[in-house]
Design a protein that fits this description.
By secondary structure, the chain is α+β, with helices and mostly antiparallel strands. The chain has three helices and five strands; from the N terminus they run H-E-H-H-E-E-E-E. The N and C termini lie far apart (about 70 Å).
Length: about 120
């Protein structure tokens, strides 16, 4: 009887110590594109800042779209995406996984090489 109790206690202690190895988790964050910060937007003066300055500061845009019926007007778009994923497991009891992605865009209207307006969208 005493031997059985010691065996059960030893098995319980082993399982308790091993439990740390049975729980896992992980997170991953990836960013892509150009994040246009509020500090960058604050430096832009509508009617004065040039497209050349914008491209030098941010790089080439993701898209350039000419505006129909408007000569020398185009919209430049910069996209930024943050993707987050996570997972967790408890051996033989639970496994979970989640993915979330957020995309924001900054748009710049350029007329004859000068920024005439800009806006952002979440």
């Amino acid at each position: 009887m005493k031997r059985a109790i010691i065996t059960i206690l030893a098995a319980g202690a082993f399982l308790f110590a091993a439990a740390g190895c049975l729980v896992t988790s992980g997170n991953n964050v990836q960013e892509s594109g150009v994040r246009v910060s509020s500090n960058t937007l604050a430096q832009i003066e509508v009617g004065q800042t040039t497209e050349q300055w914008l491209v030098a500061a941010l790089g080439e845009p993701d898209a350039r779209s000419p505006v129909a019926c408007e000569d020398n007007v185009q919209i430049l778009r910069y996209n930024h995406t943050v993707s987050r994923s996570g997972q967790g497991t408890v051996f033989l009891l639970f496994a979970g996984h989640h993915d979330r992605s957020e995309t924001s865009s900054a748009y710049f209207e350029v007329t004859d090489g000068i920024i005439t307006r800009y806006w952002t969208e979440p």
